[in-house]
Amino acid sequence: MKTAHKCLLFNYILLSVTFLCHGKGLFFNDKGNLVLPGSYNIPWMASVEDFRTLSLITIPGTHDSMALYGGPEAECQAWSLTDQLKAGIRFLDLKVFALGDTLYVIHGVMYQHSTLKEVLDTIQAFLSEFKTEAVLIRVRADSFEKVMINKMVQSLIGNNQHYWVTSGMPNMGQIRGKIVFLQKSTFTLGIPLIEPDGKGSSEVSNIKDKDNRIIKQLSQAAEACGGDNAVLTYTSGTGLGTFWGMFLTPKRVAEKVDPWLNQYLTQFFPNQPRPCFGIIAMDFPGFDLIQDVINLNRW
Q: Is there a contact between 189 and 150 (Cβ–Cβ < 8 Å)?
């Protein structure tokens, strides 16, 4: 076999091993079944004082929270919504499409086997059991009827007092047991939301560059914590659609980024107090990564 052919074969095998292996770490998860430690306490927000302003809390979340279907190009999560909430996730990122009088949850063009009403019902059931908690939601409209989304969501929730829809920044005591909406762009219900250095951050052609962008975003988030806005950093990304990152599906990005993110965040554990980073939305987060995000809340 010629040397050039041997090199091509070696590169192909190396590429296959790199992209077909599954993560087995505690910080990345692509398995569907959540197994909680026996001593785990699900309602972690119970330890947050009532007077604590929401914008001073570091909150673990998921990006495209319901994207469990559609193959490697579309899937961003492995756990069901209920399991995400039980594991400690308190921010959900939802893309919706309006058809008739129903809002369907989608990712790209893929229907994610749920309506927004079903998502809200699931969260309400969780909060009825764990009344100390609050769940933040960002609704993003992937349709031409963006101006209608506000009216449809408002119609869906009615005057239910278990939703926070005003723009004022609450403290923890005001939102226990509630679903808190976050507003940005054409969606105008809830607390204003900002994304540090968010432009183009979802495109990944080099993992190291992605890591550096996350550091920059988290640094900006730390500076903005405690203000009148919720601050959101997406650690997720995909190389699909780029040349150099054409094999970097959301899962492959998360497989590299999640363990690195955990190492980056835990370096702050000796700090007193620990820094606030706002909302951190992740793809395929493992249980230990979620817990370490929560553990930043030591004042």
A: yes
Tokens, residue 98: 């309006």
Closest CA to 278 of 177, 186, 169: 169
Name the 3-class secondary structure at 54: helix
Q: Domain residues of the chain, as ranges?
A: 55-294
Q: What does CATH list as the number for 55-294?
A: 3.20.20.190
Distance of CA 100 to the CA centre of its chain: 28
Would you call 148 helix, strand, or coil by DSSP? Answer: helix
Q: What residues contact 65, with CB distance under 8 A and at least 6 apart?
A: 76, 77, 81, 84, 89, 92, 93, 94
DSSP 244-290: TTTT--HHHHHHHHHHHHHHHHHTTTTSSSPPP--EEEESSB-HHHH
- Strands (DSSP E) found in the chain: 59-62, 91-99, 102-107, 110-115, 135-141, 163-164, 179-183, 191-194, 230-234, 279-282
| Alpha-carbon span 25 to 288, nearest angstrom | 9
**pLDDT tens for each residue of 121-169:** 999 999 999 999 999 999 998 766 777 899 999 999 999 999 999 999 9
Degrees, nearest 5: CA angle 28-266-262 = 15
Rg of the chain in Å (alpha carbons): 20
What is the C-alpha to C-alpha distance for residues 161 and 282, in angstroms, rounded to an integer?
29
